[in-house]
Design brief:
The protein has eight helices and eight strands. With 201 residues, it is α/β, with parallel strands linked by helices.
């Protein structure tokens, strides 16, 4: 998993509440277990017209936001089903950080397992960040995980809380497998001891 330390980039405003995982990546794209290639399906029902052409009114189709790496979204982001394809699609598109006032629990946990930082802010802070994001590509946000800060284009700072264990995992690029491998020496030692004490098992 790619490490997350500091991210400075264009933030796309998506002030819609209750964006569920089916809106993030519709069921038509769930036939694969590959983590790549899902970016084309991200928000496809809003992003494309019925004929498959780009919907020019959707934020990620606007020239200023095509290379967005941060998403500033409405309350209860990632609700709905537990599909892990949702963070896969965001990551494959290039989104590394989602900022909202709240997230659905399963989606929130899946983000950390895939190298995406979900940041919870207050409604007042979200309004400010949406205003900043609405200024387009010239107004980038900087997210510093180590310092737990978001810096706006005018120098304003918003601090955020994060679980220390999850912070450690993101900073070091550790998913569940990576965490297990960190304990490889202890696991080998335990297995060696058990084999010596219980050779019949």
């Amino acid at each position: 998993m790619e490490k997350f330390d500091k991210l400075t980039g264009v933030a796309a405003p998506l002030p819609i509440i209750n964006i569920d995982t089916d809106m993030i990546i519709p069921k038509d794209y769930l036939k694969t277990i590959q983590r790549t290639g899902l970016g084309r399906g991200l928000f496809s029902e809003m992003r494309y017209r019925e004929d498959g052409s780009d919907n020019p009114d959707f934020v990620l189709n606007k020239p200023a936001y095509k290379d967005a790496t941060i998403l500033v979204a409405g309350d209860n982001f990632g609700c709905g089903s537990s599909r892990e394809h949702a963070p896969w699609a965001l990551l494959d598109y290039g989104i590394r950080c989602v900022i909202s006032t709240s997230f659905a629990d399963i989606f929130y946990n899946n983000c950390f397992k895939n190298g995406i930082l979900p940041v919870v802010v207050t409604p007042e802070e979200l309004e400010k960040l949406l205003e900043d994001a609405g200024r387009g590509a010239n107004a980038t946000l900087s997210v510093d995980l180590e310092a737990q800060e978001i810096r706006g284009p005018d120098g304003g700072v918003i601090r955020f809380d994060i679980d220390p264990h999850r912070k450690h995992c993101l900073l070091n690029g550790l998913d569940d497998i990576g965490l297990t491998l960190e304990k490889a020496a202890a696991i080998d030692s335990f297995e060696g001891t058990m084999s010596a004490e219980r050779p019949w098992t």
